[in-house]
Recover the amino acids of this structure.
């Protein structure tokens, strides 16, 4: 591993890299670079989501793409330190900017993007999602970055792509576009924003707690050794346990508080859940999660 770190540092010096990417081997034929645990900042330049690549026959499949074209070019050089195979497909696990914007560069190099059909509506209905990096980064850092076209969409519960299988585990989890990528040879799953590791998860206006828990239940029944979260560096089952425990507790306690007539203004005191307070950004995220879930109960979006 030391030689890969040295290579990454040399690349950063030689090419004036904005990102110092350090590929980490998960298993034979499966590598990842792990994003910063914070939201996008000037310091992390939008690299906040994990990106992985897996050998898939004679080619590579990229699992999410990253935030910018500059990132994509540096990722391409980092990948070249691990394999000579070329990227044929880029699987995009949801519509968020930090996951998909770099994909257009790989398309220019001949790769095809693949996503669930809901990705299209996710992009169309959330144009504001693609404004934050423009405002955050310099023109040089954002140069060449644009929304990718989606070349291949599917609407079934699973889609086979060579030796890997892409699954839609529920109608809506964190978003309606969420998918996971299962790699049978490595017994690994790339879970995107369905799993969060050392940072607090986002339960937003697009989320559905019933669907998220359904996705986790299906994942639990799969033969998995490596759980790769969308955010976080641990690939054991810790991200699965954190996500499942947090969402289950959030659902149970918020439902009780709502049925007991607790008002929205008082919900944060009624559902503190301090056992999760060690997660990064917990205080502010938990408040927003509570607010959004309470409204879902109020409008009968969640039962």
């Amino acid at each position: 591993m030391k030689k890969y770190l040295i290579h990454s540092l040399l690349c950063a010096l030689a090419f004036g890299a904005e990102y110092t990417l350090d590929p980490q081997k998960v298993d034979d034929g499966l590598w990842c670079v792990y994003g910063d645990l914070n939201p996008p900042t000037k310091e992390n330049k939008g690299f906040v989501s994990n990106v992985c690549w897996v050998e898939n026959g004679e080619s590579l499949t990229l699992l999410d793409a990253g935030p910018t074209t500059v990132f994509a070019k540096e990722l391409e050089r980092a990948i070249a330190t691990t394999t000579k195979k070329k990227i044929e497909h880029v699987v995009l696990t949801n519509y968020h900017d930090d996951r998909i914007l770099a994909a257009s560069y790989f398309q220019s190099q001949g790769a095809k993007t693949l996503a669930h059909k809901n990705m299209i509506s996710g992009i169309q209905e959330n144009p504001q999602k693609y404004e934050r990096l423009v405002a955050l980064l310099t023109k040089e850092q954002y140069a060449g970055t644009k929304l990718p076209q989606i070349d291949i969409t599917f609407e079934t519960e699973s889609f086979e792509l060579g030796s890997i299988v892409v699954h839609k585990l529920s109608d809506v989890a964190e978003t309606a576009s969420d998918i996971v990528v299962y790699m049978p040879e490595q017994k690994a799953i790339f879970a995107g924003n369905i799993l969060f590791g050392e940072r607090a998860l986002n339960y937003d206006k697009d989320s559905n707690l019933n669907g998220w828990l359904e996705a986790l239940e299906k994942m639990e029944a799969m033969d998995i050794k490596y759980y790769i979260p969308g955010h976080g560096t641990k690939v054991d089952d810790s991200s699965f346990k954190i996500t499942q425990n947090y969402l289950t507790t959030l659902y149970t306690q918020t439902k009780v508080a709502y049925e007991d007539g607790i008002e929205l203004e008082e919900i944060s005191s009624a559902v503190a859940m301090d056992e999760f307070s060690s997660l990064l950004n917990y205080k502010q995220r938990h408040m927003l999660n509570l607010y959004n879930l309470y409204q879902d109960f109020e409008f009968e979006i969640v039962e």
User: Anything to note?
Assistant: Residues 238-259 form the longest helix (22 residues). The two ends are 48 Å apart (CA to CA).
